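Need residues for this backbone.
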């Protein structure tokens, strides 16, 4: 179909080809760590699909390797390069939403069912990477429940709760067993709600200028007043850009300039840290797990 594309049977052929400066690794997630490590050790710049690795220690090692070799390490957190998500970020940063109360995401459909990782590892990285990007922060604590209906080894449905700094909550529903296809992220703030529906080609983003907050500090119940805000529903123009193309352009730009991509190895590591905590919480039946720098600690096991 694409006769100009050179192919090979063995990944190691790519490592020894001096004409190749960079590799894009888009293989099953269970191979990300291994192939990325080989590529970095061979002196290649690497763009690897999400998640960077399936264990925090492995992700840390890849970040270290990239730093030591001075090569670009980028992770396919595609939504960070999605113009609708960038528009959301713009509104969050400009304060359109007021104080952010919580974020809610749903990523459900019948499959695509993978056989190497759970639906949690396959789908939740998208939403957690969006949450982290919008807030510019990582979760402090996670708890999650999941069930495996199709393959006893891997959860195919899960509900994730994340606690971010400033009392902001995040909620993610992922499923491979729901016929209702959803690709939605909502951010709810005191002044407005912003809603991203990746399946709505006409109105990918809508801003509901409605919200509820306290209009002023109060000292007694008599002074307590809620301010209900009612305004327009706005459907902002979204640039017709292809996220994956943006990812590739940034990868090439960063190789040339030496700048770090937005979705760099560190960003990939932070995501793996959160995902590892989610996995741990599921294994503990939903117990909260605290994330500290480099440490994932189940809260229930604290002294
Ligand atoms: N960022 C996104 O939006 C997004 C979307 C879809 C998939 N992904 C990620 O991309 C990755 C691949 O997903 P997919 O749907 O393309 O999977 P896939 O199973 O369709 O394709 C994987 C490819 O890897 C090849 N492969 C397997 N082992 C290999 C090896 N040892 N060396 C070289 N090639 C090997 C297979 O031949 C196959 O062509 C997954 O990690 C997934 O999470 C990301």
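Answer:
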């Amino acid at each position: 179909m694409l006769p100009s594309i050179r192919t090979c049977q063995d990944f190691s052929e790519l490592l020894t080809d001096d004409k190749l400066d960079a590799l894009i690794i888009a293989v099953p997630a269970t191979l990300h760590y291994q192939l990325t490590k080989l590529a970095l050790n061979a002196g290649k710049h690497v763009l690897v699909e999400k998640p960077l690795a399936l264990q925090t220690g492995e992700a840390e090692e890849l970040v270290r390797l990239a730093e030591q070799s001075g090569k670009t390490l980028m992770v396919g957190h595609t939504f960070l390069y999605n113009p609708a998500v960038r528009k959301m970020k713009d509104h969050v940063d400009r304060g359109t939403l007021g104080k952010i109360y919580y974020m809610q995401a749903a990523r459900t459909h019948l499959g695509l069912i993978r056989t190497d990782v759970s639906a949690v590892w396959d789908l939740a990285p998208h939403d957690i990477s969006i949450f982290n990007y919008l807030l510019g922060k990582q979760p402090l604590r996670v708890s999650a429940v999941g069930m495996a209906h199709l393959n006893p080894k891997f959860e195919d449905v899960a509900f994730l709760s994340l606690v971010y700094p400033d009392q902001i909550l995040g909620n993610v529903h992922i499923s491979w067993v729901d016929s209702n296809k959803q690709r939605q992220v909502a951010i709810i703030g005191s002044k407005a709600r912003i809603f991203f529906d990746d399946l709505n080609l006409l109105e990918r983003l809508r801003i509901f200028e409605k919200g509820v907050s306290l209009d002023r500090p109060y000292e007694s119940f008599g002074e307590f007043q809620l301010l209900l805000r009612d305004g327009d529903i706005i459907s902002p123009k979204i640039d017709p850009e292809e996220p994956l193309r943006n990812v590739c352009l940034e990868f090439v730009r960063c190789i040339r300039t030496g700048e770090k991509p937005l979705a760099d190895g560190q960003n990939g590591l932070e995501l793996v840290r959160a995902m590892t905590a989610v996995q741990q919480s599921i294994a503990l039946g939903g117990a909260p797990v605290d994330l500290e720098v480099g440490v994932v600690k189940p809260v229930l096991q604290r002294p």
